[in-house]
Write a structure and sequence with these properties.
- It is a single chain.
- With 358 residues, the protein is an alpha/beta fold.
- It has three domains: 7-96, NAD(P)-binding Rossmann-like Domain (Rossmann fold); 117-191, Helix Hairpins (Orthogonal Bundle); 192-350, Heat Shock Protein 90, CATH 3.30.565.
- The protein has ten helices and twelve strands.
- The protein has helices at residues 16-27, 44-51, 60-64, 81-88, 98-154, 158-186, 199-210, 235-252, 283-286, 306-316; strands at 7-12, 31-37, 56-57, 71-74, 94-96, 195-197, 219-225, 231-233, 257-266, 269-276, 320-326, 330-338.
- It has a five-stranded parallel beta sheet with strand order 3-2-1-4-5, with helices on both faces. Strands 7-9-10-12-11 form a five-stranded mixed beta sheet.
- The longest helix has 57 residues, at 98-154.
- It binds adenosine-5'-triphosphate and magnesium ion.
- Magnesium ion is lined by residues 244, 247-248, 302, 306.
- Residues 244, 247-248, 302, 306 line the site of magnesium ion.
Length: 358
């Protein structure tokens, strides 16, 4: 995608229509949401906008008269809105309302369904390759439990029995944690609830999960976690993001090298980075890696959907991802998330439409 100018869109109406428009437009390259207005300051669309640091107002006139707006989309259903828009909009701003807005709305529903199927399919495909890894990870504790149970059968010493039981309890807890992680990952929650997510905890979880699909024995995992605020998200979605990046990194390093995971605050945004010491990405490939179905892996090894899903999920939370790569040295993927409720340092329109090059 080229560095063409973004289209600046103002959304009127913070109900289901406005909420869906925000979800769609934040996913699209080349679109910047100037703001959303609804006379009800508690409308769900306004709340979502505030979480994503998109300007939200209860005064439609101020938004409509914004000179930077290219397109005004009215999903208020309020019959007096078109006249108000005509009165206050700048001459160059176009206006989409009525049946045309309804048409856009129904296209969005279809697009959203399609994307959700794709994201789910990607998840299932990784779960498929997990199966052997999961069985392996579950087998170890099971064998240990069997061993301790046999020791209990053979011992008369109450102190030893206590000790073996403690070991068994430890293994059961370990198994239970693993099954919780797998469930968290496998679950799809289309209308998922947003909950506060501790990013470092989820990164550690992603490393544990990555063990199901790649071998991490010879990878040194280096966590550098500086404190960052929680982000409001669906944990399963962020887990999918981190796992995809970690699995890519480990695969690139051929299961041998250093994997550095960082969290920190940078320019007022939450920054997460996943860095590897792999072969890097060729400059001509760097612009393509987020495109669906782009893969350099052998047929049957990769679908090329991983980074596409990663990018889409991050955009959904108002964030962006930047790859930096040096051939022969390694690759770092840096993710920036806005802190809810804090003014953003960069205006949405300045988000790069293409990943930053090295
Ligand atoms: N850490 C990395 N180091 C080097 N190349 C990478 C790295 N991460 C991604 N790539 C490149 O980007 C391509 C696309 O990655 P993506 O995760 O979208 O798909 P995939 O890993 O090939 O397949 P899938 O994730 O669907 O199994 C990869 O094939 C690889 O060429
Ligand atoms: Mg991948």
């Amino acid at each position: 995608m080229g560095p063409e100018q973004s289209i600046h869109i103002a959304i009127l109406g913070g109900g289901r229509g406005g909420t869906a428009l925000i979800e769609l437009f934040t996913r699209c390259h080349g679109i910047a949401i100037t703001g959303i207005a609804d006379t009800n300051p508690d409308a769900p669309g306004l709340r979502l906008a505030r979480n994503l640091n998109i300007p939200a107002t209860d005064d439609p006139v101020s938004l409509v008269s914004d000179m930077t707006v290219d397109l005004i989309v009215d999903v208020t259903g309020n019959p007096s809105m078109p006249a108000l828009i005509e009165r206050h909009k700048s001459a160059r701003a176009e206006f989409l309302g009525g049946t045309a807005a309804k048409l856009v709305w129904s296209l969005i529903q279809d697009e959203r369904d399609l994307y959700e199927h794709l994201a789910h399919a990607e998840k299932l495909s990784t779960l498929g390759t997990f199966a052997a890894g999961i069985a392996h990870e579950f087998n170890n504790p099971l064998h240990m439990m069997l061993g301790f149970a046999q020791l209990i059968q053979d011992t008369q010493d109450p102190a030893s029995v206590q000790e073996y039981i403690q070991e068994i309890v430890k293994q059961i807890k370990h198994l239970s944690n693993m099954s919780t992680s797998v469930n968290l990952y496998a679950r799809t929650s289309a209308q998922g609830e947003l909950v506060p997510v501790q990013i470092p905890k989820l990164l550690d979880e992603a490393v544990r999960m990555a063990k199901f699909s790649t071998i991490l024995d010879e990878v040194t995992v280096i966590p550098h976690y500086e404190p960052v605020p929680d982000i409001q998200a669906e944990p399963g979605e962020l887990l999918q993001v981190f796992m995809n990046l970690i699995v890519n990194a480990v695969q690139a390093m051929n299961a041998r090298g250093r994997l550095t995971l960082r969290t920190c605050m940078e320019n007022g945004s939450i920054t997460v980075s996943v860095e590897d010491t792999g072969p890097g990405i060729a400059p001509q490939d760097l612009a393509k890696i987020f495109a669906p179905f782009f893969t350099t892996k052998k047929t049957g090894k990769g679908t090329g959907l991983g980074l596409y899903i990663v990018d889409t999920i991050i955009r959904k939370y108002g964030g962006r991802i930047e790859p930096r790569s040096e051939v022969g040295k390694g690759t770092a993927f840096r993710i920036h998330f806005p802190v809810a409720g804090l003014p953003q340092q960069t205006v949405p329109s300045s988000h790069p439409a293409t990943p930053a090059s090295i």
